[in-house]
Design a protein that fits this description.
The chain has 442 residues and is mainly alpha-helical. The protein is built from 22 helices and four strands. It has four domains: 125 residues, no CATH class; 78 residues, no CATH class; 77 residues, no CATH class; 76 residues, no CATH class.
Length: 442
């Protein structure tokens, strides 16, 4: 077997550095990690540059320190299911960004795929052809030719093969070429499922961290202290509160909804029905806009045609369980967040990837921002968005934002709430103030 190359030092799931560290210094490293994770959604690339300056000679030590902080946060998450849910999502977002910004060579990328999916489940294109006796397969040859002449190759993309058991979403949605139990496609098409697999691995690491508690009293004490402070801090900062919009709640302002949420909102308004993942997606979003669990119960009770003939009390006893689950009040009691755009594009509903071009054009041109009476977009403007929607939905969304608001906008839309925050400022809606009750570092 070929010797594997080392994983990049930023990769979170490596064995942690030396844990021979004073616990209060360790606590400070954990808070540094929290600050990184909280700032990430606003401008991911800039945050990575600020916290991990590649020009610094001590960059390896910086990576080690942040991984130490992350290790302590996993111990904290092992004691609190809501913090566990929060940590898995935000660490998944950071993994995605570091992979994109700090992993350059195909060899490094393959090593991460092998680490996350398992070495036996990832093959290079050339390895697959040889091991599976597919060197004369005309379909593979055509696939390689298409890739070889595409623009993506010039951007460092390459073909890889992943066993179908690790990417069931890609199999069911026919993303890639399925052959002998393997999915063959370009590397960038696997990134969404790579992130989800990383998050599942992290969840297992958090579960394993439970075994490390109860051994040292000083570590248990700092874990308990961090859990108390962080649970308050994350709860305050992870959602909007009502009352900051001149007496009107933000969820009553669909003009600041991103396209994915607005299309789902229109669908429930028009049809009274949504598939499960769309209900979840809109439910997560409305919760983060400040909609209380009681308001959301009434929202779905009034909108859904399936509730006709039911009293509100009956609805609460039946369908109400799913809504309370969104708020961490039922089941595993996890405080779910709105998924990142890359996760939405692969596992939820994204109009840029799930609508046919003609339908997407109609939606963007005629059904978007009904409150904007002066919004008129030309065919050439929309065509520039449609042309990149399938291959780069986040860039398409960013470009559409610029068209809707006629603004020069340099940041890339990577999260639904990011669209809403920017739109709020332009629409003249006040941005929720951060709580002043942030715990201090010790």
């Amino acid at each position: 077997m070929n010797q594997r190359m080392p994983l990049p030092n930023w990769f979170l799931l490596q064995a942690p550095p030396n844990l021979n560290i004073e616990v209060q210094a360790w606590r400070k490293l954990a808070w540094n990690r929290v600050q990184l994770l909280e700032k990430l959604p606003n401008n991911p690339s800039q945050v990575v540059r600020d916290f991990f300056p590649s020009y610094e000679e001590e960059i390896d030590q910086i990576y080690d320190d942040f991984r130490l902080g992350a290790y302590l946060l996993r111990l904290v998450a092992a004691t609190n299911s809501r913090l566990e849910s929060w940590l898995i999502e935000v660490e998944g977002d950071l993994f995605e960004r570091l992979y994109y910004d700090r992993t350059e060579s195909p060899e490094e990328k393959l090593e991460i795929y092998r680490e996350v999916f398992g070495e036996e489940n990832v093959l290079k294109y050339e390895e697959f052809k040889y091991k599976m006796d597919e060197e004369n397969n005309p379909h593979l040859a055509e696939l390689y030719q298409q890739y070889h002449t595409s623009r993506s190759r010039a951007k460092g993309d390459f073909l890889i093969c992943v066993h179908y058991t690790k990417v069931p979403w890609m199999v069911s949605n026919r993303k890639g070429y399925l052959r002998k139990g393997w999915v063959v496609s370009n590397e960038t098409s696997f990134r969404g499922v790579l992130k989800k697999a990383f998050e599942r691995r992290l969840e297992k690491e958090i579960t394993k961290a439970q075994d490390l508690l109860g051994i040292r009293e000083d570590i248990d004490n700092v874990v308990q202290s961090l859990e108390q402070d962080l649970s308050k801090h994350v709860q305050i900062r992870s959602q909007y509160s009502g009352g900051d919009l001149g007496g009107q709640d933000l969820f009553l302002h669909p003009e600041v909804f991103p396209p994915c949420m607005l299309q789902i909102y229109f669908e429930i308004e028009k049809t009274g029905r949504l598939v499960h993942v769309k209900r979840l997606q809109l439910g997560f979003f409305l919760k983060r806009l400040g909609m209380s669990v009681n308001d959301q119960l009434h929202f779905w009770y009034e909108k859904s045609v399936d509730n006709v003939g039911q009293s509100f009390s009956e609805f609460q006893r039946t369908s109400g369980y799913q809504i309370r689950h969104l708020y961490g009040l039922e089941g595993g009691k996890k405080d779910y967040n709105v998924p990142q755009c890359s996760t939405i594009a692969t596992g939820y509903f994204c109009p840029y990837t799930h609508l046919a071009p003609a339908i997407l054009t109609e939606f963007l041109k005629n059904n978007y921002y009904t409150t904007k009476k002066n919004l008129t977009l030309g065919d050439s403007q929309l065509n520039s968005v449609i042309s990149i929607s399938g291959s780069n939905p986040t860039q398409a969304c960013t470009q559409y934002f610029r068209l809707v608001y006629n603004r020069t906008f340099y940041r890339k839309i990577v999260h639904p709430l990011q669209w809403t925050r920017f739109a709020m400022k332009i629409e003249g809606l006040s941005t929720p103030k951060e709580s002043e009750n942030k715990p201090t570092e010790e």
